[in-house]
């Protein structure tokens, strides 16, 4: 051990002493002895120093080993051994013992470092995991240094000093875990205006990579409006004063802003600060939305065209909007403290009260109803009202919302319409009554006149002059005509709406029957009736038969010189069918085209073309009832065409129940 | 059974119609006794009297107008039909109305037939002749006593 402590110069000196002769040497010997004594004293002094040094080193809890490379001997200091749970002398003083202490995974790196240190001669350090005797892993800071070289300048001795940094490592790991896992944002910044360290959540919240964030001056990330106050806060931080609850908007990579609430404290050294931030964007948005929706509701309430009032549980108005005040003729805030139901017409009061109770008791969710209210000036206001409950989850008394829409104009027109309808129904009834009167009461005296005129003629025939006979003839003839007129009028009035008998009607079948009905007059007149292909339409079969029969009889009746030719044919159009009845008769002058459809309108003298003049009026009425259109085109002396347009079933408007 | 002197009860408010009906029967069979009542009450009173006296014969045929003052024809018909003794007596409605509603009602109330008064005298006489031939000559009726026995049952 002592040998090891001699310097190379001293070793040389010892060799010289061993080689010198004794004759010339007594002085020399004395000198050497003195020198030797001095050297020994120095050596002792060195040894003392070394022991002291070792104890100092051991005192810093640094263990070390000292490896004599040629001797393959390695000294392990007591602290080194204790560090891994071993007593002095428990391990053999060889490098192998040391290597066995190293965590196997780390050994190659350690040996590489040893090689590097031996090769370069430069000291090197690294963190190495060792295995404690009890099996635990220890983190150790290990520094390697060559301390002695041989004559060929090859390393001869290397020293490794070891410090146990396990607890430091654990603290660091703990910090790093918290730092990386935190949902709050941690930042370390400095006077340079850039972040020095950020935890990963920054990247997730703002969308940048951390590398990007380190490049951007942090003030540039902050919303322009928040920059000035943030800058002041950072100055405060750098000056060593803590800050709290700085709210600033940070721009994300996509250009949005996130609201961050930031607290911070100064670092140990100046020009550094630590900040913790929390993303409060959601809270901010909710708060903003609340403000907006509250203001929105307020605006709706104030300016809605319908009347709105807030009632308490007793039905007393707490807050009424302008529309409600205006609808009922009250001034601003005048309605407050009124019982809402008391504003209703006295006949509607009870129903509204009951509805209010139902809503309060949650028997119904909302009440809708039409009720009368009394305007302050006394007139009636018809309102469509809605009553609903706004529950208060915090347990405070619930509020009732009443909405009132002024439907007075609608009610007025509904009333007018009902009156009109009533009038129409009444006039229809009167018309029916008239028809009955015409059929019965008017005919009775007429019949008596006719019968007795005939009896008169029969019994007094021989006593009568020609003149009397002639007069009597006029009376009987007039009576007969009047009877015909009354019958036609009756027929006309009986053509009525009967939606139940509306069905699909095959016009070809109808025309076949009509031709059969008219077969004698067709034969007598020599009429050529040509029936083309006809559609199936939607209608009343009896009425349609009457319609075609009337028109075809007309064609036969109003025939010209030549024998009648009557054609029936149909045309399809987008809205339905048009059926034409064309004859080659005497025709109708254009000035009468409209008139012919009027009741009792006749164009010809009785003697020539007998009839009551009701036939076309009935036709028109039937076509009207079928929501169709009857028109005529005619050239006098050449013929007439009647055209019946009937709508498709699809476009047929169903009748309201009468 | 041949009815030699059958009674006809004519209920009509129109004297002209009473006259021509009577006249028509006279011409067809002078043996037919036509008794006329100008309103429903008179007609029913007459029937009451007939029912009250054993010997007084009930009419063999009733000719009834519908449009009567006060009690109308249908009410008279309803009353007649409620009398057991008159159950087999035919009631002919002779009305100036051709209204389907009237026709339907008349049959519903138990009329045996419904005839619309014709317009001309000749036609009227034909109608009366038809009524006479069918209802008074051709049709058989139960004996009065038999009819009463039936009623007791």
CATH superfamily of the largest domain in chain A: Histidine kinase-like ATPase, C-terminal domain
Q: Determine the oligomeric state from the structure.
A: heterodimer
Question: What is the total domain count of chain A?
Answer: 5
Helical fraction of chain A: 40-55%
Average pLDDT of chain A, to the nearest integer?
A: 86
**Gross morphology of chain B:** globular
Q: Which two chains share the most extensive interface?
A: A-B, 16 and 17 residues
The structure class of chain A reads alpha+beta
Distance between the termini of chain B: 23 Å
Secondary structure: number of strands of chain A: 22
Q: Largest beta sheet of chain A, briefly? A: 5 strands, antiparallel
Q: Please identify, by name, the CATH architecture of the largest domain in chain A.
A: 2-Layer Sandwich
The CATH class of chain B, by name, is Alpha Beta
Morphology of chain A: elongated
Spans of chain A of at least 5 consecutive residues whose pLDDT stays below 50 are none
Name the poorly predicted regions of chain B: 145-153
